[in-house]
Amino acid sequence: MAAVKNFADKISFEQIKVELLNTAYGNDRTLIARLDPRTLFIWYMLFGIAPWFIYSKTILAGLLLFVIATTIMTRVSRLVIFILILGLLGESGYMLIAALFFGGNLSIVVPLLMLTMKLSVISLASMTTFCSMSPERLGEGLMSIGVPGQVSFSISYGYRMLPNLFDEYNHIFMSYRLRGKSPEKHGIFYWRSAAYFVRLAMKSFYPLLLSMAKRARTTVEALETKGGAYAFSTPQVKKLKLAKLKIGRNDYLFLLLSLIYLVFIFIIGHYIQL
Amino acid sequence: MNELIRTEQVTFHYPGEDAAVLKKINFTIEKGEFLAVIGSNGSGKSTLCKLFNGLIPHFYSGDFEGTVTVCGQDTRTSSVAKLSCHVGYVFQDFENQLVQARVLDDVSFAPLNYGKADYLQRGRRALKIVGLDHLEDEFVWQLSGGQKHLLALAGCLAMDPDIIVIDEPTAQLDPYHAKEIYDVLKTLNEQFGKTIITIEHHTEFIAEYCKNVLLLNQGAIIWKKTVREALAEVDLLTELNIYPPQVAQAACRLSAGEPVPVTLDEGIRFFGEKAMQHADDVRSEHKPSAEEPIVTFEDINFSYKRMDRTRVQILKNINLMLYKSEQVAVVGNNGAGKSTLMRLITGVKKPDSGILRIGSLSVTATHPERIADQVAYIYQNPEEMFIDDSVRKDIAFYPRERKIAGYEAKIDEILDQFHLVDLQDKDSRLMSGGQQRRASLAIGAAMEPSVILLDEPTANLDMATRKHLTQFIVKLKERIDLVMIATHDMQLVSEWATRVIVLHHGQIIFDGRKEELFANPALMDKAGLFPPQIVKLSLALGVKPVAYSVDSFVRRFRKEGSKWQPSKISQTK
């Protein structure tokens, strides 16, 4: 139980906030992060969607190696990787146990491995694409492919407010604790304490919603005074906003190398079957 | 020709409210003015300022009559976006007007939206004016409160407006940062020819920086005067719950008919010519009690993690013992660690190292819920304490959870004591600032703690609310063992505290009597503290002992000729 307590102490609100912000903004100086968002969208079409239609284990393994490399290059935060591994293991593990329980045998492992590999490739490709783009870049990228300006503003604004949301939620949660009463006894497996905290965690959202609504009022007014509505409806402004997006040599090189690698593993997959 | 703003017979009703917030408003503002808009809470100051960029009538539905002309445009036919090119607006909750993650993106957001190709240069130029140019790549949430306010101002400057409206800069900032903002505003006014309109409670800032004053009461304009004439109306201002500068208050009570001084320098000249009765230095002895301390800090350290995973030290080697019936004020700039120091006592944050005890209870090993049996903490922002949907339920939360017998009667009593009976079924979040503050204190009172921690209790209050609150704080002493207040309000410190702790960059640089603190300008300067004007005046005039309130200063003169008795205030303990 001490280990659980120790772990619980480590994942504080502060910790989660830092990790989330790092996921969004912390790695925008890497090689991949400096590519044009549109390049990354094209690349994602190749590596994020193609695996659904590939059944050769050799090719999938080759893709997996490649996206592992790109994920390392983008310096994704540890928290996200941890959650991904937890998710993959949980998903596959549960299906394996379910299959064995309902009369399957170990032959289930091979198809499960295939599924896990596909999911991993897609997840890692998504991480490479979306974790290396800061919310602003993502917004600009989306705008450049015709998504309305309001959407891209909402993305960057949402992330801007994220730390505030976290702090405020933390304050409200603590308000409950500073006046509330925790269970006298922890109960078996700490269930009483766990139930108490889960209840507080849910209750804390209601005051948060109300105070956010109040904040939003100022933001909407401020946005108006900063010409937000004018910008959304004026094509010249959109052009100005997108002027800094530029597909350069690195972009072509990155796409070309990815393509060459794809062709290469498809050829190998044709001759060698794992 | 130089007229920038003209209002004619402007009346405005919010929907669903009987009384108009603005009643037949007529006035003009000329180019180059530095105007303070004053009035008690709810007099319509913010509403008035929202006329200038067209938020009223375009954004607030309600009945609007009359005309407002801004830079030659009728606000009814113009738009908020167009008017905002001429009028920059810094909101009171300025944090919510910063909409981008990085400083440079945020400051150049408006010029980019208006399609100005040189938006980055504009942003950089604005940052340079407010002195944030070294932070252009920083994230907004890493900035301090003062820096965020400067950034909000820079965001307006990037559009190079003719008029800048600032809603209560001193409400959210400590005096040091408020002064910083006013110095920037002064430069903008004098060197760049901008017209500045500020909503301000703090008349000492008005006396030092503004040129004209517009007084509002219940939605009507009483007058618009020059600063000198305006602040000399001590009686009228006091009646409308506005504190005139302390030098003016003192002068007004001591001499009728003479022109009243409004700034410290004038005060020194004014009183310097008059004879002043001196007395022996009376010290309010701060003697360490022989009793066991109520709260003990031993080598406490606290740090938090920044986004780049480096740690920032907030408190360094804090050693502190607090005794029964002390009235402790914790002072220091924003970010000095005041709130953290108090929150550690509640147990919601645990120190990195060191020992922290309340009596014999170890805070580090105890849940906040247990500590709450003894300690009540009142947040700086009351809204963060409201967790239920009515005032009454919020106050009753603590006794209800603990199933304290007969608590309902107790709640009735507290509601009455804090004048909240009529408001008890209202949602606390929808009340005014002063009402919220009262409710937050009532929540603390219902906990019947032995230690109460108040974080900035007097911030952002008008005179009536502040007076009421100070009475409450003084009364606390009777029932509560230890009262501790973190505050910027040096007037409160000088009138109430028996022990002052000065924090600076997470360390205690002073712990002792306020007399010693106020007599040490170098230390005050280092910690970014400003003594109350009356204390500065007494020091400059060589008054001994120093007067800590206008009352005691005035009494000093009245006693002239008779045998002088040390005043009550100067021997608080």
Automatic annotation (TrEMBL), chain A:
One Pfam family per UniProt: CbiQ
Statement: the UniProt record of this protein carries the keyword Transmembrane helix: yes
Topology with respect to the bilayer: Multi-pass membrane protein
Arranged from A to Z, the UniProt key words for this protein are: Membrane, Transmembrane, Transmembrane helix
Query: What coarse category fits the chief subcellular location reported for this protein?
Result: membrane
Task: Name the source's superkingdom.
Answer: Bacteria
Record localization: Membrane
Q: List residues traversing the bilayer.
A: 41-67, 79-102, 108-130, 188-209, 252-272
Keyword Transmembrane annotated = yes
Annotated protein name in UniProt: Energy-coupling factor transporter transmembrane protein EcfT
Organism of this sequence: Sporolactobacillus mangiferae
From TrEMBL, chain B:
- Principal location: membrane
Q: Where in the cell is it found?
A: Cell membrane
Q: Which UniProt keywords apply?
A: ATP-binding, Cell membrane, Membrane, Nucleotide-binding, Translocase, Transport
Keyword ATP-binding listed: yes
Q: Which InterPro entries match?
A: AAA+_ATPase, ABC_transporter-like_ATP-bd, ABC_transporter-like_CS, ABC_transpr_CbiO/EcfA_su, ECF_ABC_transporter_ATP-bd, P-loop_NTPase
Task: Look up and give the membrane topology term.
Answer: Peripheral membrane protein
In terms of PROSITE patterns, this protein maps to: ABC_TRANSPORTER_1, ABC_TRANSPORTER_2
Q: Which residues form the ABC transporter domain?
A: 5-243, 295-530
A Pfam family recorded for this sequence: ABC_tran
| PANTHER family named in the record | ABC TRANSPORTER ATP-BINDING PROTEIN MA_1418-RELATED, HEAVY METAL TRANSPORTER
Q: Which family does it belong to?
A: Belongs to the ABC transporter superfamily.
Would you tell me the protein name for this molecule?
Energy-coupling factor transporter ATPase
Species: Sporolactobacillus mangiferae
